[in-house]
From TrEMBL:
Swiss-Prot/TrEMBL GO biological process terms: methylation; sterol biosynthetic process
Enzyme type, top EC level: oxidoreductase
One Pfam assignment: p450
Keywords per UniProt: Heme, Iron, Lipid biosynthesis, Lipid metabolism, Membrane, Metal-binding, Methyltransferase, Monooxygenase, Oxidoreductase, Steroid biosynthesis, Steroid metabolism, Sterol biosynthesis, Sterol metabolism, Transferase
Entry protein name: sterol 14alpha-demethylase
Predominant subcellular localization, coarse grouping: membrane
The keyword Calcium is annotated on this UniProt entry: no
Species assigned in the record: Arachis hypogaea
Family per record: Belongs to the cytochrome P450 family.
PROSITE patterns (UniProt xref): CYTOCHROME_P450
UniProt GO cellular component terms: membrane
Length: 488
């Protein structure tokens, strides 16, 4: 009996001791591991997923998303990059305040190109004010006058084409968009007198932004040296233009003028160096992105007779209504063309990866209901190029189907905000979206009204190696002048 009692006592003691030890373990160890960290992409020791990433981030995402889901971490050296793919998990990416998810560190590589004192070289409070200057320079009343300049540039440019012929559409649209951007953003002086000088300098600035520049923006390589010299010369040119506008009191309808007239909250006017830096930033944000999108739009329209006739019919209807007039309000009525551009941009967003740096821990819940904690210190990424083709959001995601945006379907909205992210969204959504659409519509409305076009090269491939991802090789198009017949 005694033996049984002590056995029972010992068992109880063991039981209690086990619970105490378990509690202690859970108090000291489990809290750390209870963090539900995202799964990790398999990789090599130390360099981690670097080789996978270098092969192309989208290829890596295509392999990992089906295995790991919408949230996972790629380790590279000592860095952790956590991907948030899909609207269910990316809301925080787009909405978080700068104190929680910031752009400054991850977009630092732009500083030698944009120059000192602007955008990612300044504190968030100053940057916010500078983005206010962008917002003001891109307001509807300003856009209205930019549109007139866009239309004139398109008319002048295409008047130089012959009766019929063959052209590389990609080259043609790149050139037209540099001219338009010069006129609307950089100003009349540059467009009319200094175009060749300034575009050569912008060419050097462009070439100074290599994939290696993202990691080592100040590496002493010839491309960076040319970039720095070009930037200096551009600063001198703009300083002269600004001084001349100020001394003559001449005011123009362009972004340059808006930036000259902009004032910080404390009343301080912008400096010449800031104006130059902001203009360079505008050109970097808007030029390649728009020219790439207008080329994809053309490639798709010329390969899809259904949509080609739909956009031509829309032009005919608008000509019946408004005659030859093409201004801001007429462009605003081009809904079919709008959807065709938007769909080209869904399939081919030029900015394929957006980044932030996390300063606080945060959690996300996947569509399958799994919760993950993302620790502070991670780089956080999302990818328009991948997310825009998620099959649970977009039906037959690889098919060009502009009607997916019509009332009743609205696939860009039904799964919630941040389903369609070619222009980003939320706190840092693109400020130039209306400008970009107006510009691309102005070009395509002119082409559709005045030319019969036929794609003669194969449908273009994607140039994944470019910093701003666009079209690989030439896009050869045969054209013949025409006048749309309109029954008045
Ligand atoms: C098809 C053309 C364009 C595309 C696809 C595009 C795309 C984007 C994207 C994805 C972002 C968000 C970046 C991020 O979240 O990290 C962005 C931001 C921005 N874009 Fe665009 N963009 C285009 C045209 C333009 C144009 C024409 C301008 C100006 C003239 C412009 C000015 C800006 C500015 C200032 C921001 C920064 C907004 C902020 O951080 O608050 N963009 N753009």
């Amino acid at each position: 009996m005694d033996i049984d009692v002590s056995k029972f006592f010992n068992t109880c003691l063991l039981f209690v001791a086990t619970i105490v030890v378990a509690k202690l373990i859970s108090a000291f160890i489990v809290p750390k591991s209870r963090k539900r960290l995202p799964p990790i992409v398999k990789g090599l020791p130390f360099i981690g997923g670097l080789p996978r990433f270098l092969k192309g981030p989208i290829f890596m995402l295509r392999e990992e998303y089906p295995k790991l889901g919408g949230v996972f971490t790629l380790k590279m050296f000592h860095k952790n990059i956590t991907f948030l793919i899909g609207p269910e998990v990316s809301a925080h990416f787009f909405k978080a305040p700068e104190s929680e998810l910031s752009q400054q560190e991850v977009y630092q590589f732009n500083v030698p190109t944009f120059g000192p004192g602007v955008v990612f070289d300044v504190d968030y409070s100053v940057r916010q004010e500078q983005f206010r200057f962008f917002t003001e320079a891109l307001r509807v009343n300003k856009l209205k006058s930019y549109v007139d300049q866009m239309v004139t540039e398109a008319q002048d440019y295409f008047s130089k084409w012959g009766e019929s012929g063959e052209v590389d559409l990609k080259y043609e649209l790149e050139h037209l968009i540099i001219l338009t951007a010069s006129r609307c953003l950089l100003g009349r002086e540059v467009r009319d007198k200094l175009f060749d000088d300034v575009s050569a300098l912008f060419h050097d600035l462009d070439n100074g932004m290599q994939p290696i520049s993202v990691l080592f923006p100040y590496l002493p390589i010839p491309a960076h040296r040319r970039r720095d010299q070009a930037r200096k010369k551009l600063a001198e040119i703009f300083a002269r233009i600004i001084a001349s506008r100020k001394s003559t009191g001449k005011s123009e309808d362009d972004m340059l003028q808006c930036f000259i007239d902009s004032k910080y909250k404390d009343g301080r006017p912008t400096t010449e160096a800031e104006v130059t830096g902001l203009l360079i930033a505008a050109l970097f944000a808007g030029q390649h992105t728009s020219s790439i999108t207008s080329t994809w739009t053309g490639a798709y329209l010329l390969s899809n007779s259904k949509y080609l006739s739909a956009v031509v019919d829309e032009q005919k209807n608008l000509m019946e209504k408004h005659g030859d007039r093409v201004d801001h309000d007429v462009l605003a009525e081009m809904d079919v063309l709008y959807r065709c551009i938007k769909e080209a941009l869904r399939l081919h967003p030029p900015l394929i990866m957006l980044l932030r740096s996390s300063h606080t821990d945060f959690s996300v819940t996947t569509r399958e209901g799994k919760e993950y904690d993302i620790p502070k210190g991670h780089i956080v990424a999302t990818s328009p190029a991948f997310a825009n083709r998620l099959p649970h959001i977009f039906k037959d995601p690889d098919t060009y189907d502009p009607d997916r945006f019509t009332v009743g379907r609205e696939e860009d909205k039904v799964a919630g905000a941040f389903s369609y992210i070619s222009f980003g969204g939320g706190r840092h959504g693109c400020l130039g979206e209306p400008f970009a659409y107006l510009q691309i519509k102005a070009i395509w409305s002119h082409l559709l009204r005045n030319f019969e076009l036929e794609l003669v090269s194969p449908f273009p491939e994607i140039d994944w190696n470019a910093m701003v991802v666009g079209v690989k090789g030439k896009v050869m198009v045969r054209y013949k002048r025409r006048e749309l017949s309109v029954s008045h």
